């Protein structure tokens, strides 16, 4: 955020205004928030900050008190499906399925529609509720979920880290054979530290998506148990939904949803991912 703040005080390069878009503003921690407070409160001339979050309440009070609030509606499933067909060339039936499963989340719908690996990971997550019926199954499911998230982070690192490192070394004037000029090793170390943090963040992002899918799954179970008329998000797993809906009470389903939320909170507190996910899968088993 400090780098972003510094850039915000430069003049717009290609137009009259520059717009700084901060996705997931709810993830700003106290240090990041302190870095951005002054720039948000008194932005540079012709600079606009847009901070995006699921809700106003998710953003730190010190940040939201300095912002103008604008509430946007979630796009409908039909609108997301139509966008995927028109802009991405996705088949209408696939577009409708992924739009329904992500409940209006455009980026996730696009990823599911275009990435077979993402669809496979989601399918594996939706099978998890049937795999936690005993202790061994719960622990194995947790390990596989964490391993899949770590593999996501590894793939991103393989795509980006090497290129970034080589570009930095070239910019620093590294000699043939990769030897760095004297006094520049610290710059490379800073980049490596940033890449390590990004891998951890990517693993957490992947787990976040899995928790969202699980919450959506149990929300559908609860809808069936209560006879709700709301449309199911996970129609591709309807047989499993109906089986679980018949096999437990609505109160039990709510406890499972709470266990998933508790896992997310534990990850926010930097609890080791495997420990947090194991606690969740054990609660799903006994919920």
Task: Provide an overview of this structure.
- The chain is mainly α.
- The chain folds into 3 domains: 2-64, Rossmann fold; 75-114; 135-286, no CATH class.
- It contains 12 helices and 2 strands, in the order αβαβαααααααααα.
- The protein has a two-stranded parallel sheet.
- Helix 9 packs antiparallel against helix 11.
- The radius of gyration is 22 Å and the shape is globular.
Task: Map the helices and strands.
Layout: H1 2-8, E1 18-22, H2 30-41, E2 47-51, H3 61-64, H4 77-88, H5 92-102, H6 106-114, H7 116-127, H8 135-171, H9 185-226, H10 238-247, H11 250-268, H12 273-286
Parallel strand pairs: 1-2
Envelope shape: globular
The N- to C-terminal Cα distance equals 41 Å
Uncertain regions: pLDDT < 50 for 5+ in a row? none
> Which oligomerization state do the chains in this entry correspond to?
single chain
**What's the SSE pattern?**
HEHEHHHHHHHHHH
Strand content: under 5%
- What is the overall pLDDT average? 88
Quick summary of this structure?
This protein is mainly alpha-helical and 287 residues long. 66% of the residues lie in helices and 3% in strands. The protein has three domains: 2-64, Rossmann fold; 75-114; 135-286, no CATH class.
Features:
mainly alpha, Rossmann fold, single chain, 287 residues, 12 helices, 2 strands
